[in-house]
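Could you help me review a protein record that somebody else here produced? This is what I was given.
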Amino acid sequence: MTIDRIVILDFGSQTTHLIGRRIRERGVFAEIVPGTTPVRDWFDETVKGVILSGSPYSVHDAHAPVPDEDVYGLDVPVLGICYGLQITTHLNGGEVSRSETREYGPAPVQVMTRDPLLEGVGERFLSWMSHGDAIRRLPREGREVAGTTHGVPAVVSIPSLRFTGIQFHPEVSHTEHGGMILDNFATGVCGARRQWSVADYRLRLEEQIRRQAADRPVLLLISGGVDSSVVAALLLSALDPDQVHLMYIDTGLMRKNESDEIGTALKSLGATHLYLVDASRDFLSRLEGVSDPEEKRRIIGDAFIDVQEREIERHVPGDYFLAQGTLYTDLVESGHGVGSHGATIKSHHNVSSPLVKAKRDAGLILEPLAELYKDEVRELGRILGLPESVVGRHPFPGPGLAVRILGAVTRERCDILREADAIYIQALRDSGLYGEIWQAFAVLLPIQSVGVAGDSRAYGDVVALRAVVSRDGMTADVYEFQPSFLRNVAAAITNRVPQVGRVVYDYSGKPPATIEWE
């Protein structure tokens, strides 16, 4: 059976995959390809509509990405989002100019005329804007369907091109009815059928793994977190268990008691080859005196691969594939999105390490989750039979506590943070709040604060607590605790971790902050 597709042309926006995620939530298959890819390379009868994504570029930049002009001649509807609207306006005789200030944040939209794209959203809704260019004149056949209170065209239709453009971002949760607008496009305007599910995608992933790995051994450096655990279960489901090698490297940068818990969990998966490696001394010695977060990530990434290569000579024969639990959010933030126009926010050790790049260039990387978001990964894990204690865990960064310790990383500072974090997480579990929160953790700051210890003046470390709610990790809002909860946690940490003299709570959302501090 053929599956209807919505193709998203990616021009480098940090939220491009959110577009696909929102559409897939509604049961329609969405596929993302680089924005400048020729139409002949991706278009066939299964494509029911095309979406042009946003971009960090201005249409006036010298190297601004431009879609294949044949996109506008296809007999399918086209939706332009932000840059997608601007570049279409620019290419079809309209005028787009740079704004004096970037419009970023909420903007009320007033609907002026009926349009299938806006079916069911009402006459007025709140959108989320993020753009530096503004449309000054529409193309000759363009008409304004909706506008903002700032006088910016918010929705534009060009019937002769079967094109509709929107200046705001419906893919982010801040836009009211954003999911409905994308669903209106996919199923209403385009007529695509709801044929996509994680359960079906699992079968495709397993076939892809078998085809790519063939009969070679596959090694997974497993952290014990949700992503690597799901990859482990997926590999064991898709391949002969004797072909799968699971290696857990204890970096000395894990949470309290985590290494013991991971070892127990991995044994329960039924893997034939399981290697538990204590490399904490190696990692901590390499990190000695290093404070720069990008340098930490580079060192940890290289150390992971060095330890793996050292151990693999003892355990895995011949050439092998390296499997990773890389998610799309990792790729986006590292500037490794679908196309070549993404901006780097921070590197990820499983994406940006030179040694990982070498493996990737050699075609020896398996990243079966690279098209998925965290909530989809959790659903896949449940389908594969993993327990809720594994699939429900909060995300944990690959570099571990090294990027939650701002400044130099030492064994002593790791122990301080481990204790503070364990107290915080246990309080969440005891209060029944853990499952309501996307990600919660403690951060050890590189400062000391004056305080009182008994009758004496003392200086103690400062710990910051972080808790956010999110759907996919691309955007996040702070979790609003009751003040009494934070007071109790702060008291527990300062009482039970003598090195800590002050506890603060991080109220930043994403954007402008990232979820992790480094």
Residues 293-315 form the longest helix (23 residues). The chain has three domains: 5-189, 198-391, 410-505. Residues 113 and 145 are 5 Å apart (CA to CA).
